Amino acid sequence: MPLQLERSTKMNRKKQAFTLLITLWVTLVLLSGCNSPSQQGAAPPEAPSGQDTIQTTSYPLTYTDDTGVATTLEKEPQRIICLAPPSTEILSALGLDRKLIGLTVYDNYPVGIQENAEYIFEDSLNPNLEQLIQLKPDLVVTGMHKDSFINSLRSLGIPVAHLNPQSLESTYQTIEKLGYITNTQEQAQAVLQGMKAKEQAIADKVEAIKESERVRVWIEVDPGLFTAGAGTFLNELITKAGGINIASDVQDWAQYSEEQVIEKNPQVILSTYSYYMDNVKATIAARPAWQAIDAVSNDRIYDLDSDMVTRSGPRIVDGLETIAKALYPERF
């Protein structure tokens, strides 16, 4: 049982957090291009030609994360604090639940993941540093965190792995890296093989669709008509699912107008915010000015599991499959 458990106020807190996260996503995506020499830094060592990938990590281990900073782990991590839900899902898939001593209130998958943690942080981006230190972690995994927080941990001698993938390929690299850091390389390869096989199966089903027959998609991440433009993970998922994102003319997260949506006449509408708002589909369908939009008139409005399509972890390919099925149900 946890030593101390902090709770959020559910729906209202989530809505406020979502608005904040949209702003942070925009800022961090822009900064990441300036601060990181590469998305993943140094890769795990390659096996000699003709041999399988190395399956055991040797310590002391020096690795480089998304900040480009080299960190040395003297031994295999046993007490891990993860402040990034996507990485929590990865670490769990690698079989490390028992080593996750500190998590956040937003860690909700797999079900029961918080039960073994010694502490649950309510503020995931600005966690209680004193409490974090008391937990005596030998590794802290961060995601959308400011450099100042990451540097404060490093100044205390706490090893940090800052990983914030923004594409499917960099998600694969992150899984491989966490497997390398935590000595679960074999498990990581098994997870990757499953994910890549599913991605390829989806690609095989949609690749023959002619450009003129590809479905126009409107992604609505907020009732204020915020959407995912070019350069976002959601845009990549729409493209890989065989769709055309009507908001690909804007960069990153942006706000569209009703007139823009109506003019581009999407054939499918995907929403991602039913976790804090009820009756999302009915609300969209009831908008007076949207009645002539193809997606509305043909009842092709679908609500997505937000976590599944925005968390860069093992379930992201399940999110890709969900989108592809919504766009082309006859092919699945």
**Coarse morphology:** elongated
Low-confidence stretches: 1-43, 45-51
Quick one: CATH class of the largest domain? Alpha Beta
Number of strands: 14
Blueprint of the fold:
Blueprint: E1 4-5, H1 11-35, E2 61-64, E3 70-73, E4 80-82, H2 85-93, E5 100-104, E6 119-121, H3 129-134, E7 139-142, H4 147-155, E8 160-162, H5 168-181, H6 185-206, E9 216-220, E10 226-228, H7 233-240, E11 244-245, E12 253-255, H8 258-264, E13 268-271, H9 280-285, H10 294-297, E14 301-303, H11 306-310, H12 316-327
Parallel strand pairs: 1-6, 4-5, 4-7, 5-6, 7-8, 9-11, 9-13, 13-14
Antiparallel strand pairs: 2-3, 10-12
Keywords: Signal
Region (Disordered): 37-58
InterPro entries: ABC_Transporter_SBP, ABC_transptr_periplasmic_BD, Vit_B12_bind_prot
Quick gist of this model?
The protein has 332 residues and is α/β, with parallel strands linked by helices.
